[in-house]
Amino acid sequence: MRTDDLIKALDADARSKAMPLRSAWRMAAGAAAVIAAVVFLLTIGPRPDIAAAMHTVRFLSKFVFTIVLAASAFALIRSLSTPGASTGRAATWMIAAPLLVAVAVVLELFAVPSTDWGRRLVGTNMVICLTFIPLIGIGPLAVFLAVLRYGAPTRPVLAGAVAGLLAGGLSATFYAAHCFDDSPLFVATWYTIAIVILAALGALGGRLFVRW
Q1: Tens digits of per-residue pLDDT, 126-151?
Q2: Which of 82, 141, 177, 185 has the highest count of CB atoms within 10 angstroms of its CB?
Q3: Is 153 helix (H, G, I), strand (E, B) or coil?
Q4: Please, are residues 65 and 97 in contact by the beta-carbon 8 Å criterion?
């Protein structure tokens, strides 16, 4: 069987599922958000001064970064889970979140004295960040990998990695409500490392559980 024929067969199989793949992804997103919210509230919860923090640009900017990452990863993973679907436009949007973080870091470097750069980068919650973003995201990652199995991705490792980025963006959005370190320098460093951990776990999960 030729590759094109195989892709068409997989696409037909994905479309013939009892639940359309598009609906499955919508349900997965809702379930993942609920799981992340429950883990977040049962473990660390929002910071006590969140009402005041919401009036600061640095605090709100964290949510812009994480939500943009989650939204772009969601668009890409939906395309990757469908054989033959175009991924070019969705893949291009994946640069949006890193670009926003990079711009914020540059503005931060201009706004604060160089003597404060190291303190803002290290922050006070580095270990908590590296612990709880993966912890909050592991449940959503399992949900997304399950939907990938329901579909038929032709690049399971890549799809799994994007599932990890999606789980990371979602979990980082919740974690940002707890985090006292609002500097873009901190976000660019430790949030990124924590999300990359989930992306690596997703790639491994894609290789082990999603491949066909």
Answers
A1: 999 999 999 999 999 999 999 998 88
A2: 141
A3: coil
A4: yes
